[in-house]
Design goal:
- The chain is mainly alpha-helical.
- It has one domain (about 1-160, about 175-375): Up-down Bundle (Growth Hormone, Chain: A), CATH 1.20.1250.20.
- It has helices spanning about 10-15, 20, 25-45, 50-70, 75-100, 105-135, 140-160, 175-185, 185-215, 220-250, 250-270, 275-305, 310-340, 345-360, 370-375.
- The protein starts with 7 loop residues before the first helix and ends with a helix.
Amino acid sequence: MSIVGPSLPLYAKSFGVSYTLVSLAISMYAFGRLIADLPMGILADRIGGRRLTVLGTVIMSAGALGNYFAPDFLWFIILRFVQGIGSSMWQTARTTLLADMLKPEERGRVMGYFSTFMLLGGAAGPTVGGFVGEWWGVKAPFLAYFIAGVASTLLSFFFLIEPPRKTQTSSHIFSIKYVRHLLSIRAFTIATIASFAAFLLMTGIRGTTFSLYANTVLRLDQVSIGTILTYASLTNLFLTMPVGYLVDYYGRKSITWIALFLSGISCLIFPFTTDYLTLSLAAVFMGIATIGSQQAPMAMVTDATDNEPRGISMGVFRFFGDISFILGPILTGMIADAANLRMPFYFMAAIMFISAVIVAFFGVETYSRRKNEQNKKQ
């Protein structure tokens, strides 16, 4: 999916629209995910994660091919919306599968392994996409996305195995009352807030403002932008396994608020970058800062929903995350139009600092091997 990262805002801008409308290229994708999250959570409980994964990759691939042939901006964002629905299927299915596979004491570590393979694609994608866009045009990465999507569909269909389900869901029907029940679980709510902030940063800064800032303010080309994004992804890649161990050992809460705080600091660095080197260093620091804010909340929410229907719980969790997927690009786009391309970084820093304080003072620890060992000694 990250193969279109460097080109996506630029391709949307090529239709001759404002920065705010460019943000719709991200937000319509997220809106498709948003409206599909809850139905897909129910569907995951009904038909299983494997089938939903295969269907999701088929829809994402078809959407990418449609993006490549989009005749105008309206069709482009409609197809992004369809692609978002497919992404919701895939995201909800994979988190449901993981939740059923893993024990509390291994969630941070094994999710770290899982994230490593995700990040291998995330690391290679922007660089490949940058070269593809530079050589064959700004929309060519969508064709590459389609090819990768077909490969993912085939791998999922032939090799993915459905694990035994830990919860029975035949008696569970989705309702607003059930959402209130989930939100009454403090760990679930705190994990949701942390995830909301992390997604806001990912889509508002890394997914939208970064490329526009690098291209418009620093005058960097698509290849340069793609390689810088790869540096951030490679940093995530190298740290995801060690951080996974930290999440299991020290606990979900401490790693979450520290990661959010460091993410806020990383946002403050970007407005002071002046060239390829300084922007690369800022991207690397953001890669260091953000890794914990992605892994720890997921482990926390999985702990908090051990006795809940997996698909619905993960659907609700992703629903609130995808709200930030929509708001991130829109807010940063509006701020950039109203002020300049540096101001979104300051705005996002404030959001991250506030979220870190909320987690640190109001969060609860759902699992920490270190505390468990200390309790046993006592």
